[in-house]
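Can't paste images in this forum, so I'm doing it all in text. The chain is below; anyone willing to post the predicted structure tokens underneath?
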Amino acid sequence: MTTPPTVKGWCPGAYRPMKSEDGLVVRVRPRLARLTADQAAGLCDIALDYGSGHIDLTNRANLQIRGVAEADYDTVLAELGALALLDEDPSQESRRNILVAPFWTKGDATARLAQSLLDHLADLPELPAKVGFAVDCDPAGPQLVGCSADIRIEQGQAGLILRADGAERGRAVTEETVKTALTEMAVWLADHLTPQARRMAAVCNRSALPSDWTNAQPRPPAARPAIGLHALGALVGAPFGQIDARALRQCLKGAEGIRLTPWRAFLLEGAALPASPEFVTVPDDPLMRVDACPGAPFCPSASVQTRDLARALAPRVRGSLHVSGCSKGCARKPSADVTLVGRDGKFDLVQAGNASDIPFKIGLKPDDVMTGEF
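Text version of the structure:
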């Protein structure tokens, strides 16, 4: 029998779920950002049988089942294990914070290096739970720049580089030397962490990296892949990162598997674009410019409903839009052109900023927001 979950306030895992107003949030970290069609279908069944019927796609390309009752938690954990979506060792599962550029092919550098990193995780020092890695070796250039990761393996101008998040340049490595170099960087990070600096970028602002770790030029970032058909299948958008489990199960017919991205989109391997209205299938859909957290009543920190408002406002906002249930701004870390922040049942308006910034207007009622100009 597992210990009853009482965890709050951090990123959930499968073995360490987080309590929310609608039940437990259980996070699944797929290896190499991929699930087989059978694994994805099984995850949909778990969400439908024991959760809210929706699956969250996070900005770390993980999946979350929401609304799990505490009485069902052990059953959910057992079914995830039966789908081979968990490590037997809970500590190993919590370390698998690895972003993988999603358009890898079997046996290429990204796949090889991601698997090597998975095999090497147990040898790395203990790091804060939110510290993560990115394997981003697409020959066209890094795709995961701006996504949450602390230590990055990328294609540089003259070969592979290992780059600390926040550093403009990296350290030249090869597939044979990258494991040792990554261990050295992880140890350096562990040694320089402070209560005020718990992520690599913050640490680099306080402490200089060794000079030979910043002597290799990275490649310019690649363009973000557009929603639509690609060589490996159909890239499909999930508004707000929310996936209807029943609709996804239907989409899996004829698909070999799914690849997950940190851009609120997933790739249906070997499949056509779905006809389901639950998903975005055109590249210019305004919903893909919008971020919104679950809001009230699902989050105890939120005093306002968020996603219905965000959906209604999406066509009216020319740039990026963030609707946040509170000033924590969990759904979006970068600044947005327009940010609406819930406070005491009303909204504060921030222009070209974050949810925690000083607002331009305060105390707007939802009706005022709907009739406003953005």
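The radius of gyration is 21 Å. Residues 1-9 have pLDDT under 50 and may be disordered.
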